[in-house]
């Protein structure tokens, strides 16, 4: 007989043999390849498959945005009723699977709320009904469980768009079939915290009792992420380092006090990457394939990238790649601030990005000023992203903060050594070059300023041109570093069990 007081402290490895694998519903606003604006989409498209491979019953629910083609998908016959304020939103449910797996994906269709060409906001504007849209998604996720007769052990939610789910489970669903369902809220990026007018709260049906400081209320407005952080059974961040950072006033985006308070329930789990999608040995987007033992295909990819982006066809000039959402977070302004000095290092820049119109304009202006030296593609383009990862020699990420970051892992897999600000997941996933031992998988700098960016790129270029054998060894080390999802899936399994245990004592 196990000691009950000890059992309250969470999951114990010996439980695994006797307890079945927790079943999980992922409720999210993005899921690659169906809908993606950044790494959140990559995670929701891949982690469920890794969990499925461990044997979990895992399913995903996503809005049916206007650009998702439902042809060939199964449409459930009965409509799904979703309480929204005093009325009910009637939704259709489409079902398919995540590519290459048998993980069910459910798409919630409601034309007035979701059939738009964007996920969150239109280009250059604001969507004024996002509280209604994502409240509908959150409530629909739970209605769907009951509709399908799938009562998951855990609902795993992601960032603010589904952060209301834990609040719903603690209020409107506190009795009934979902009463024992636990929640895990993963913080991908604390910087995204929309606030909504308190008057909208009635839409959610959660009652005014949760509109308090230890809940949804934030300076008189509704902050769904804050509510989720107070109400979720367990919290995770997408890297261990970020789990520490978010507890500090400097990086807690105004919620550090909540994250400190809930520190015992907060775990940092490093993201993985989808090694089938990001595989230089089999990448369909590339003109040639390569691996750690034979990099000759990478030379072909470099030449193709130079052609793609209008760069001079010089094999002996290093290419520094950048792929980013053009947002303050990513520090692209730091690169622009030292552009002349960077180019004096005799390198080429290959940039892919979209977002802030001012940054887009400045990047295009840089390409016009330095033809053949700076190649810029504005837009969201999966194919070009793969071709930059493969064809560049180095990959630059001067992010001011980075909860995890995926591109530095993709680039390592493609033998493109990352140059990163030592922060968040960038610090956790890149091993700094050690000049004495000739080891490392990339180059780190701190803090993030134009001067430190410049110095780090200079350091990388020096190794690239002066120590080619060391560079080669670093590439091999980077390319063979395991970044798959299997380890993360194991950690999430553990967190789900802790969450279940806690929920039982709730
Ligand atoms: P974040 O989620 O903060 O944007 P990540 O590094 O975690 O940062 O993930 C970004 C993901 O989005 C990567 O898969 C990256 O390749 C992709 N991405 C970002 N910008 C673009 C773009 N303009 N075109 C294609 N893919 C992009
Ligand atoms: C966020 C973060 C990024 C992270 C991604 C996936 O968008 O900005 O660092 O890799 O989510 O978790």
Describe the structure.
- Helix 3 (39-54) links the parallel strand 1 and strand 2 (58-63).
- Helix content is 36%, strand content 18%.
- The protein is globular and about 65 Å long.
- The chain has helices at 4-7, 15-18, 39-54, 111-114, 130-148, 164-170, 224-231, 240-245, 256-261, 296-308, 332-337, 339-343, 357-369, 382-391, 407-413, 424-429, 450-466, 468-479, 486-504, and strands spanning 24-27, 58-63, 74-75, 80-84, 87-97, 104-109, 154-158, 182-187, 196-197, 217-218, 221-222, 234-237, 266-268, 319-326, 348-355, 374-378, 394-397, 417-421, 443-445.
- It is of the alpha/beta class and 506 residues long.
- Strands 1, 2, 3, 4, 5, 6, 7, 8, 12 and 13 form a ten-stranded mixed sheet that branches.
- Residues 1-18 have low confidence and may be disordered.
- The protein folds into two domains: 22-272 and 486-505, Glycogen Phosphorylase B (Rossmann fold); 296-479, Rossmann fold.
- The chain has 19 helices and 19 strands.
- The structure holds adenosine-5'-diphosphate and alpha-D-glucopyranose.
- Adenosine-5'-diphosphate (ADP) is lined by residues 38-40, 42, 323-325, 352-354, 380-382, 385, 404-407.
- The site of adenosine-5'-diphosphate (ADP) has 18 residues, from helix 3, strand 14, strand 15 and helix 14.
Largest sheet: 10 strands, mixed
Helix count from the secondary structure assignment = 19
CA-CA gap between termini: 22 Å
Average pLDDT? 95
Shape-level CATH architecture of the largest domain = 3-Layer(aba) Sandwich
Q: Gyration radius, to the nearest Å?
A: 23 Å
| Uncertain segments | 1-18
Q: Briefly, what CATH class of the largest domain?
A: Alpha Beta
Q: How many domains, in number, for the residues?
A: 2
């Amino acid at each position: 007989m196990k000691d009950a007081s000890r059992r309250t402290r969470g999951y114990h490895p010996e439980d695994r043999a006797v307890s079945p694998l927790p079943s999980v519903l992922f409720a999210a606003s993005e899921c690659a390849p169906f809908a993606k604006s950044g790494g959140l989409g990559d995670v929701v498209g891949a982690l469920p498959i890794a969990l499925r491979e461990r044997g979990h019953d895992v399913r995903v629910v996503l809005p049916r945005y206007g650009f998702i083609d439902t042809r060939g998908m199964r449409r459930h016959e009965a409509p799904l009723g979703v309480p929204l304020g005093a009325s009910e939103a009637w939704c259709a449910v489409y079902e398919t699977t995540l590519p290459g797996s048998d993980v069910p994906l459910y798409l919630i269709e409601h034309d007035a709320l979701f059939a738009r060409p964007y996920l969150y906001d239109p280009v250059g504007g604001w969507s004024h009904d996002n509280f209604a849209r994502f409240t509908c998604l959150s409530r629909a996720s739970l209605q769907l469980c009951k509709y399908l007769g799938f009562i998951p052990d855990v609902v795993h939610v992601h960032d603010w768009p589904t952060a209301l789910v834990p609040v719903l489970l603690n209020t409107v669903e506190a009795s009934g079939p979902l009463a024992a369902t636990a929640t895990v809220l993963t913080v991908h990026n604390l910087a995204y915290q929309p606030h909504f007018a308190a008057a909208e709260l009635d839409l959610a049906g959660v009652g005014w009792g949760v509109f308090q400081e230890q809940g949804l209320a934030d300076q008189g407005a509704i902050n769904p992420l804050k509510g989720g952080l107070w109400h979720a059974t367990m919290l995770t961040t997408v890297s261990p380092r970020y789990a520490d950072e978010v507890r500090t006033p400097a990086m807690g985006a105004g919620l550090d006090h909540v994250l400190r308070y809930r520190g015992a329930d907060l775990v940092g789990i490093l993201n993985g990457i989808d090694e089938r999608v990001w595989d230089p040995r089999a990448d369909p987007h590339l003109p040639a394939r390569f691996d750690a033992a034979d990099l000759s295909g990478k030379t072909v990819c470099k030449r193709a990238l130079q052609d793609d982006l209008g760069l001079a066809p010089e094999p002996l000039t290093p290419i520094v790649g950048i792929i980013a959402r053009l947002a303050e977070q990513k520090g692209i302004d730091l690169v622009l601030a030292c552009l002349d000095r960077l180019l004096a290092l005799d390198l080429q820049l290959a940039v892919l990005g979209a977002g802030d119109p001012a940054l887009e304009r400045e990047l295009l202006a840089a390409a016009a000023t330095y033809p053949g030296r700076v190649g810029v593609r504005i837009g969201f383009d999966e194919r070009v992203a793969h071709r930059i990862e493969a064809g560049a020699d180095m990959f630059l990420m001067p992010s001011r903060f980075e909860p995890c970051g995926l591109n530095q892992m993709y680039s390592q897999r493609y033998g493109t050594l990352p140059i990163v600000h030592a922060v968040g997941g960038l610090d956790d996933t890149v091993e700094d070059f050690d000049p004495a031992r000739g080891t490392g998988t990339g180059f780190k700098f701190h803090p993030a300023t134009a001067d430190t960016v410049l110095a780090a790129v200079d350091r990388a270029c020096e190794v690239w041109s002066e120590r080619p054998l060391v560079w080669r060894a670093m590439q091999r080390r980077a390319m063979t570093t395991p970044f798959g999802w299997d380890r993360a899936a194991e950690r999430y399994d553990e967190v789900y069990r802790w969450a279940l245990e806690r929920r039982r004592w709730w």
